[in-house]
Amino acid sequence: MTQATHAEREHALLSASGAHRWLICPPSARLEETLPDTTSDAAKTGTLAHELAELKLRKYFVEPMGPQKFAAQKRKFKKSEYWEDDMDANTDAYLEYVQSVVHEYSSPPHIVIERKVDYSHYAPEGFGTADCIVIGGSTMHVIDYKNGKGKPVEAENNPQMKLYALGALSAYGLLYPIETVHMAIVQPRVWEQPSEWTLSTRDLLAWGESIKPIAKQAFEGKGEYVSGEHCGFCRAKETCRARVEQLLSAGEKAPLKPPLISWEEAGEVLKKAEGIVSWYNSLKKLVLAEVLKGGEVPGWKAVEGRGSRQYVDLDKTFEYLQKNGIDEAVLYERVPLTPAQLEKQLKKKKYRELLEEPGYVIKTPGAPTLAPDDDKRPAYQPEINPEQVFGKREE
């Protein structure tokens, strides 16, 4: 069966991956449509990782292939400029999770890889591609691979996963008596274990019905612009007026307020200011690109930045220096690899066996850092020094 590659895929206006945005800010979908779609290196790396993950799943579950053919396919991936050393281990973790799901069934379940699913009954012209669907008995698993190493993506109440599930239910609901939907996001560079969430088919369908009016608004480009965390990957994030005004607004001025803000106000200010730095840097890049292509942005111009020095030929340069009496020890630094770098070299399983399990590497707690109160991590509990509370004991 021929499948479209990730690069060839169409994208719906009301995409599943953008649902976390258009469900909160409906008109953003049509606004993004007016702007060019730029692809970052991180996105291209993610696409390559997805293609490798698909190859591994197909080899194991769908299209058995010999070791030579599989190795030849992998070599093609490794030649890409977007290949990263941990990509093999991360996609192995994805394969292992899917295998664990399949092995839970007493008889072989139905497995679908990279399936285009249609959820247009809930969002006009809505469709997307589910990485993996496993159906057996009354349970359907919808599994998604994420290659990102920045923000963790959780399965719980994830609108992208729920739209994939609705599309899968439309495709297979008449063939299988599906009562429960289990969703999982495998993000090996962030989660040690996949993020999982389960809900009933009844609850999933009820959610689908509840979003219909919002999806209709989004498709028509109506509704209010709402800024927030969901703006992060929006094409209009630098120049969206609603976001700019929200980020730069200082709040209403009122008389008779104390000269110092309260802790409650400090918390609100932090939330409001959180996106300003990333937005400012993104906007600077956008304005620079406009100036470099000949456009005019009043008050700004492009200038040459600070340059850097580099060797014309490193080997020849160091050979020349040694001939002129410079000791080799001066030219090189011997720096031990960090545990994180060693894990990358040895791969996770071997790293744990050789270093963590025998106790050669221990995990030290991180320094306290500020986070919103809806962060999933437990609140920091400092160790109390008795001397700080009761004073130093006299002998």
Give an account of the 3D structure.
- This protein has 395 residues and is α+β, with helices and mostly antiparallel strands.
- It is 42% helix and 10% strand.
- Among the domains are: 215 residues, Lambda Exonuclease, Chain A (Alpha-Beta Complex), CATH 3.90.320; 41 residues, no CATH class.
- The protein contains 15 helices and five strands.
- A five-stranded mixed β-sheet has the order 1-2-3-4-5.
- Helix 3 crosses helix 5, helix 6 packs across helix 7 and helix 13 crosses helix 14.
- It is globular, with a radius of gyration of 26 Å.
Name the CATH class of the domain at 6-220: Alpha Beta
CATH fold category name of the domain at 6-220? Lambda Exonuclease, Chain A
Q: What can be said about the biggest beta sheet?
A: 5 strands, mixed
Q: How far is the N terminus from the C terminus?
A: 82 Å
Q: Which second-level CATH architecture of the domain at 6-220 applies?
A: Alpha-Beta Complex
Strand-residue proportion: 5-15%
The largest sheet has its strands arranged as: 1-2-3-4-5
Oligomer: single chain
Question: N-to-C SSE series?
Answer: HHHHHEEEHEEHHHHHHHHH
Query: Which whole number gives the mean pLDDT?
Result: 86
Computed Rg: 26 Å
- Relative helix content: 40-55%
> Which structural class matches the secondary elements?
alpha+beta
Write down the overall geometry. globular
SSE topology sketch:
Elements: H1 19-22, H2 28-33, H3 41-62, H4 67-78, H5 87-103, E1 110-118, E2 127-136, E3 139-145, H6 159-172, E4 180-186, E5 195-200, H7 201-220, H8 241-248, H9 263-273, H10 276-292, H11 314-323, H12 328-331, H13 339-346, H14 348-356, H15 386-390
Parallel strand pairs: 3-4
Antiparallel strand pairs: 1-2, 2-3, 4-5
